[in-house]
């Protein structure tokens, strides 16, 4: 006598599907958070490696901070990514040209192409303009800054995650003193990792900052407010020391 195998009933199939959907609803957000954390860790690693390259540059050039651009002319060796690339070997061909490509260390893995502002080079970080560099095409006002000038190296920003809005972008991080989050043409502090962006400090450590902590809070046209909020200006090479 043969026994006919009993299949799943419709109710049982629906129960199984419901259980799978519940598990997916629970696990997918967890997977998304894990992935986001992994991308943040990769971004922090990028900044850590660039920080080490900056320190090697300083050792080779008599404790001079890496400037945002060569402090003489617009000609090579060029801007800060090119200045530290000998220690990273990331830029294709070693020179920043329109046909060149920057390596993965200069781009946050969480960044999207729309942030590039139409610029040919992929980069997600900006240099503090107080690190030194040129101020005009002919080198007038160019300067270098020694490490000793950084009075509070653990609280002086070297680089920050930056979002490029303007056509052509910039090599500088957003200035908290003149920051306008509503200006569609400016480069801005980039919040890419769960409401924070990553910052590399002169002493080499990397930490996360919220937009509220990064941005100057006050009327930029008010001298009194600027003086009162001066402790929040992270780009000042000589301080003062931050006091929350």
Order of helices and strands: HHEEEEEEEHH
- What spatial form do the alpha-carbon principal axes imply? elongated
Average of the residue pLDDT scores: 75
Q: Please identify the structural class as seen in this structure.
A: alpha+beta
User: How would a crystallographer describe the biggest sheet?
Assistant: 5 strands, antiparallel
Secondary structure tally, helices:
4
Relative helix content: 25-40%
Distance between the termini: 84 Å
Total separate domains: 1
Low-pLDDT stretches: none
Rg (CA only) = 24 Å
Overall strand count? 7
Q: What percentage of amino acids are in beta strands?
A: 5-15%
Structure notes:
By secondary structure, this protein is α+β, with helices and mostly antiparallel strands. It contains four helices and seven strands. Strands 1, 4, 5, 6 and 7 form a five-stranded antiparallel beta sheet that branches. It has a two-stranded antiparallel sheet with strand order 2-3. The protein is elongated.
Keywords:
elongated; 244 residues; five-stranded antiparallel β-sheet; alpha+beta; two-stranded antiparallel sheet
Quick structural overview:
Helix content is 27%, strand content 10%.
Task: Write the SSE topology.
Blueprint: H1 10-60, H2 80-84, E1 125-127, E2 132-133, E3 143-144, E4 157-163, E5 188-189, E6 197-201, E7 206-209, H3 211-214, H4 223-228
């Amino acid at each position: 006598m043969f026994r006919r195998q009993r299949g799943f009933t419709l109710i049982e199939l629906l129960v199984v599907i419901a259980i799978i959907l519940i598990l997916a609803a629970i696990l997918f957000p967890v997977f998304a958070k894990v992935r986001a954390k992994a991308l943040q860790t990769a971004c922090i690693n990028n900044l850590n490696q660039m920080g080490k390259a900056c320190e090697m540059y300083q050792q080779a050039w008599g404790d001079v901070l890496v400037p945002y651009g060569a402090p003489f002319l617009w000609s090579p060796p060029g801007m800060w990514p090119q200045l530290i690339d000998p220690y990273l070997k990331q830029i294709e061909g070693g020179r920043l040209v329109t046909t060149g490509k920057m390596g993965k260390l200069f781009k946050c893995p969480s960044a999207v192409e729309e942030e590039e502002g139409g610029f040919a080079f992929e980069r997600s970080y900006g240099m503090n303009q107080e690190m030194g560099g040129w101020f005009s095409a002919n080198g007038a006002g160019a300067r270098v800054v020694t490490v000793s000038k950084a009075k509070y190296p653990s609280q002086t920003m070297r680089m920050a995650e930056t979002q490029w809005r303007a056509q052509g972008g910039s090599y500088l991080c957003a200035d908290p003193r003149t920051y306008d989050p509503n200006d569609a043409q400016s480069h801005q502090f980039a919040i890419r990792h769960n409401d924070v962006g990553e910052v590399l400090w002169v002493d080499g450590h990397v930490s996360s900052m919220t937009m509220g902590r990064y941005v100057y809070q006050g009327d930029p046209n008010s001298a009194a407010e600027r003086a009162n909020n001066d402790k929040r200006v992270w780009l000042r090479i000589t301080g003062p020391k931050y006091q929350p």
